[in-house]
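Recap from last week: sequence in, structure out.
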Amino acid sequence: MKNYPVLLSGGSGTRLWPLSRSKWPKQFVQLFENQHRTLFQSAAMRLDQDAGFAAPTVICNSDHRFIVTDQLEDCGVQAGKIFLEPCGRNTGPAVTTAALALAQEDPDGVMIVMPSDHIIAKQDAFISAVKMAIDVARTGVLTLFGITPSEPHTGYGYIKRGEAIEGTKAEAFRVESFVEKPDANKARGLVESGGHYWNSGIFVLPIKDFLAEVERLQPDMLDACSRSYQGLCEDLGFLRLEETAFSAAPNVSIDIAILEKTSNVAVVPLAVDWSDVGSWSTVSELIDKDDNGNSIVGEAIVKDTSNCLIHSKTRLVAGLGVSDLIIVDTPDALLVSTKDEPQNVSKIVEDLRKRDRTESEQNVQNYRPWGFFESLIVGPQFQVKKLHIKSGGIMSLQRHQHRSEHWVVVSGTARITHADQQFVLNRNESAYIPAKDWHRIENPGSDPLEIIEVQTGDYLGEDDIERADDVYGRLNEMPDKRAR
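Predicted structure tokens:
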């Protein structure tokens, strides 16, 4: 009867655009200065084995799989299993799949389901609260954490507590009702009436009892998840869920699917500093302010400016005579918004997708399993990129029909495969790869490898790629214009 952390790592990257994108959502981003760990890494380290918890189970988007493994390796966490969702179906199918997998080895266990994009301070207090909630869950009750509201927030769901539960170590209450995200007047009334908590989205679930409720309340979801789990395949250590069955599961949150329909649910107050970092206004609240109420990340000069968030890690931003603005600058997109509009940032992303703009998915720095590349200059029939290849990173053996590539090593050592030749390039050495020639770059050294790449040709889209070999198993993946 172990206790199993389960990390939910999905997300569409919309609410903190343009810093967060669908292929690099907020849990993998460093939002703050002096932030040593990403939100995902902090979540992965939150319940460690030294405190009596099993290795975490991770459920993530297939596009994020190598980001997940790199960030876990960087913070020294060994995952138990990493499941890849073939498509997003919200938290209901994700949590159900995790429960099915854990039930195979420990049906009497308890899983602690946590979003991977929250900030939780007071680590010791959180672990203590989790252990008390586990005590409640082991009585067969589905248990969730409630946050005492500090304001009438309209971006959170609310939980109304009922009668106290006796006989456990925790302060726990039956859940009387759930309230969906309210308008401002209703939120104010909920806070003033007392007995209401913000729904933290963190759940402590007895595996066997949870699956029994899923079978009772959502048999179609259980059937779809069971078939998808049974049809999974292993891929480079990841567990790919079968796509057809998983796609048939209802697109529904675990709250709506199960927790709001069952009477077997309790809430435990969670007395820690908590945030779901759900908007740029929330980010602003988490950053120290200057004397005029400005929150600044990066380089900024402000004159006669107050109550603004300025976030720029790439270039200087100057604010003059403005107030109550959110300014987020990235190399390829700039967001300027009033502070009362941050919940609507997703509408910008929706519009970008309708226009088929890549800024909704990728930023200038494009992550790949071997490292990342960054677009520097784009011109007519040419573009310049910087390739950053991590130690041991190996690009696929590939060729292009429409473009040639010139490489200059600016740091590190590169092992180059070109046609039937293999050679080494050191700093300040270069190579030319004509179109249609097979080629590959490897980093055999212990230091990062950086290469400036100049592409020339009549078509420069990244879908002009043919792979003959790939250590990351991407041969059968359909490349898009940003793949490599």
